Amino acid sequence: MYRVKEAFYTLQGEGAQAGRAAVFCRFSKCNLWTGREKDRAGAVCDFCDTDFVGTDGQNGGRFETPEALATHIHNLWPAAPGTPYVVCTGGEPLLQLDKLLIDAFHGAGFEIGVETNGTLAAPDGIDWLCVSPKADAEVVITECDELKLVYPQPLAPPEQFLGIRARHYFLSPMASPSVPEQGDDPVKRSNTRKATDYCLAHPQWRLTLQMHKILGID
Ligand code: SF4
């Protein structure tokens, strides 16, 4: 059984794949926070701005088989030229994404991207792996396509992750979880300046901004 909070067709907004059309498949649950506000203060990851609780979002649901979920995602892809691309996110997608589902997505013609906190082993067959470490949660993935660090995190300084082999190292300025997506966020503005300064001083790192929020697209 796979539990999906929501699924939707949009443009990837961040990182090296920014601007690419993708079906986002947001899996329910995370291993670093329950998703409930009453638990935020005690969570390992306490700045999350995503609702991943339950299966009641747009195109969300419970899927008994990998083929059923792959078909559901495929139905959200337009009948047009271009390689279908699914981004498995969450929550923490590696709580649910297994080899059977990878094979089903590939069978439906998809390239598979995954955005994970890196604390769980990844199954073989992922085409684009993005690791985003959170606080002091141990990262067990040692190689990925891109490392995307939300910045600043006192317990997760960038230099701590240079042992993870990646094609790209990105800093993503931390937003305030309580500010609406299109609202003015002084915390994020300040963090964008800090991330910019860090990248200027450490050119191995690149700044990535959440394009979808800037443009106001889902
Ligand atoms: S690890 Fe990701 S999904 Fe989980 S609580 Fe943190 S930001 Fe949210």
Automatic annotation (TrEMBL):
Keywords: 4Fe-4S, Iron, Iron-sulfur, Lyase, Magnesium, Metal-binding, Queuosine biosynthesis, S-adenosyl-L-methionine. [4Fe-4S] cluster binds at C30, C45, C48. InterPro entries: 7-CO-7-deazaguanine_synth-like (IPR024924), Aldolase_TIM (IPR013785), QueE_Cx14CxxC (IPR030977), rSAM (IPR007197), rSAM_sf (IPR058240). It is an enzyme of class 4 (lyase). It comes from the Bacteria. Its cofactor is S-adenosyl-L-methionine; Mg(2+); [4Fe-4S] cluster. S-adenosyl-L-methionine binds at F47, C48, D49, G91, S132, P133, K134. Residues 45-125 form the Radical SAM core domain. Mg(2+) binds at T50. GO terms for biological process: tRNA queuosine(34) biosynthetic process. Catalyzes the complex heterocyclic radical-mediated conversion of 6-carboxy-5,6,7,8-tetrahydropterin (CPH4) to 7-carboxy-7-deazaguanine (CDG), a step common to the biosynthetic pathways of all 7-deazapurine-containing compounds. Homodimer. NCBIfam families: queE_Cx14CxxC. This is 7-carboxy-7-deazaguanine synthase. It comes from Marinobacter halophilus.
